[in-house]
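Hi Y.,

Following your request, here is the sequence exactly as I used it, all 190 residues.
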Amino acid sequence: MKPLKIVLTITLMVIGVTAAVPPPAPDRPVLVAAAYAACWTKYSGGQASDSRGNSSVDGGELTFDDATSLDDALSHAVRSWSLGTIKIRKDDATSYADVEFKDTNRTDGQWRDLYGYWEHGPGTDVIWLNLANLTTAEARRKTAAHELGHALGFCHKDPSKYSTLMAPHTGDMASAPTAQDKKNYTLLWG
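Below is the corresponding structure, written out as tokens. Let me know if you'd prefer a different format.
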């Protein structure tokens, strides 16, 4: 019975010491991990903040397959989000695409007013670009960059709070990541 009593006594002492650690002195800052940027939950399907887990990024890079006719929009999206930490590149024979850019041309059901859509799931994710509604070069470029932002883990943001590419409606979107979008990128990816 003595070994049990010793282990129990040591455990209680450790717990007591741990619980007795004083709070930091008022003149010393408390380091707290930064939270990721909040979503505009009205348009983010219940997602609370930007998320690495809700992205297409795999191992510090995002590889894509190009099955879209909107080459200019795709190039703009990749240039816009090539901010250093996450490598965005076209897939090749030695890699598996994390996301595929595809065209659709629909006005039925959910597609009636939809310009683009990031479809996240098992396997390769898809960024759909809806040719039926993307009638201007500006709308195509904004939409491709916006949907690539989702693939990088960014949710919709409220454009009344700051200018952002991640606004839910094309008319409210910036044409490329803004200074605040870049801060959000740094918060999420470093």
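Residues 156 and 166 are 5 Å apart (CA to CA).

Thanks again,
Q.
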